[in-house]
Amino acid sequence: MTMSLSRLFSNIAKLQFSAGVSISGSLCRNSFSLLARKTPPIRTLREQNTAAISSCTSHFIKQSFFTSKNDCRKNLLCSEWLMRSCSTSGSASSNTYEDGTFIYTPKKIPLKAKWKHRGLENKYTIRPLGFVRTSGRNHKGKVTITGRGGGHKRCYRMIDFHRTPPMDGSVKEEKVLKILYDPNRSARIALVAGGNHKRYILSTVNMKPGDIIKTSCEVGRMTVLANEGDAHPLAALPIGAQVHCVEPYPGAGGHYGRAAGTAMVLIRKVGGQAILKMPSKREMSVSDKCMATMGRVSNEAHNQRVIGKAGRNRWLGWRPASGWWQRKGGWAGRKIKPIPPMKIFMDSKATKTIT
Question: What is the DSSP secondary structure assignment for residue 47, as one 8-state letter?
């Protein structure tokens, strides 16, 4: 007597509930041969699921009496379909209706970590590191920035934005070894060495291999005569100096003035604060103890580059636009907006206030 598909599933479900075994996880096609030979003790959940399905299907196939080869083939295909439907690469949950049919709901797996390397949380290295770009997606895998995707493979290089000076008042000297291209930023980077330590920093316009750059925290009565690439506190620099890689707070590392060809101008120093003008004409006030690097960031002609073809934008990771955007003519008029108010970063440890 042949066994129907619904009856086969209902019997499998009854045997499942009587045995108290949950069917979920990954299964394999060759699980029918598990009963033919002695198997080692089952320890993992995956092995338990495989053994449970194989025992259920083989039990009912042996008990069934097939009248023809077609019925046998149908039941075998049903068992194979059951095994395929329950198989998954990630974790999942399963449930059953009253008639024994399975409800399979796969669990959503969040986006994997961006970095491929491990164990470098508190270490610095000049070795190029591989990483996976998110293509405009957040940690849940949802697209938050449209128009991103694809692009050439890149390696990440750790840039040290902290020009930390010696605390004993001495001058730290480093030699520029190479000027390199970094695919992850518009500016060029420089490989510098001091003592037995190498690191990457942002390169300036006129920096070249063999130059000696200095880092000092000394603030004297007179302003220093700093060369391009030297790092000093803002209190030690003259008015009108062009600086980049400016810290918002002492010891925070350079956050402002890091794009290619940009520089910030030191306007004035008042009450322990230094007033800087950004490239956008907006003013910013930070503590005069913050470190800044003299000079303008390298690769000034970055904004003058010609893309030339659509394929180059795809190399850079930009997907094609819709084509509906068109530039407005002269009838639209120029929108003249006022300059935003001054951006103020107050040092909590400072005793003086701005007046």
Answer: H
